[in-house]
Amino acid sequence: DAKTTQPTSMDCAEGRAANLPCNHSTISGNEYVYWYRQIHSQGPQYIIHGLKNNETNEMASLIITEDRKSSTLILPHATLRDTAVYYCIVRVVAGTASKLTFGTGTRLQVTL
Amino acid sequence: AAGVIQSPRHLIKEKRETATLKCYPIPRHDTVYWYQQGPGQDPQFLISFYEKMQSDKGSIPDRFSAQQFSDYHSELNMSSLELGDSALYFCASSPRDRGLPWSGYTFGSGTRLTVV
Fold first, then answer.
1. How do residues A52-67 score in pLDDT, each as one tens digit?
2. For residue B3, what is the enclosing H or E element?
3. Do B70 and B50 touch, CB atoms closer than 8 A?
4. For chain B, what percent of residues have pLDDT higher than 70?
5. How confident is the model at residue A80 (pLDDT cuts 50, 70, 90)?
6. Which one, A8, A48, A102, B103, has least CB within 10 Å?
7. Chain A residue with Cα closest to B89
8. pLDDT given for residue B30 in this prediction
């Protein structure tokens, strides 16, 4: 699976949009971009995933550049409960089980 | 909706003892993954099972073993425990990939193992 690079930490004011970048310059054509987050000591939580088109769900939006070498997770109106470590992971969707490999994510601190 | 159930939630063991962690996947999920997360670290993949067979192996010590049973639940067995084994252990489950995008793994709440 391709490696990803994320900033170590970011701050965001409550109510503002949080934009979390991720570089995955070695991504292959058959690899998807997944975002998970982990709120302190809880199990990681799935947020969103995409291949090449932008995606939106009730939690967030995912913007993937045209060359697919980077992406941005957008939390449109961050709240204090969004404080967590956010992981960007690229993964092949294969015919059998394939693991998620967690790198060093971005620690997002949402403040009042 | 049913989630991934892990037991126990907390476990305290002494050095050189053994421990067994259990994971009950979401119904109809046939794949189970185990992760270890040490203090201040990111989750590290240990091992996975698909249809009761080991499907992938990560940085799992030889002192650890795991299996998946006919009802798809899984157990992680840890022997000769060391202080460094103190960590959060997460289990995740997913349905089988069929070459189609899926919504990802579902993680359990974890088991906190403390070795003293």
1. 989 999 999 999 999 9
2. none
3. no
4. 92
5. very high
6. A8
7. A43
8. 86
For A93, the closest of B44, B45, B101 (CB atoms) is B101
Q: Write the Ramachandran bin of B101: left for phi over 0, alpha for psi from -120 to 50, otherwise beta.
A: beta
- Which residue of B31, B98, B101 is in closest CB contact with A49? B101
**Whole-Å CA distances, A53 to A42, A47, A62, A66:** 30, 16, 9, 8
Using 50, 70 and 90 to split pLDDT, how confident is the model at B51? confident
Q: Tokens representing B87?
A: 């960590």
The 3-state secondary structure of chain A reads: CCCCECCCEEEEECCCCEEEEEECCCCCCCEEEEEEEECCCCCCEEEEEECCCCEECCCCEEEECCCCCEEEEEECCCCHHHCEEEEEEEEECCCCCCCCCCCCCEEEEEEC
pLDDT band at A1 (very low <50, low <70, confident <90, very high): low
Q: According to the model, what pLDDT value does residue B62 have?
A: 96
CB contact under 8 A, A45 and B101: no
Count of residues in chain B: 116
Confidence of residue A30 (pLDDT cuts 50, 70, 90): confident
Query: B24 CB near a chain A CB, below 8 Å?
Result: no
Q: How far is CA B80 from CA A81, B12, B35, B63, B65, in A?
A: 39, 14, 19, 7, 12
Distance from CA of B17 to the nearest CA of A (A): 25
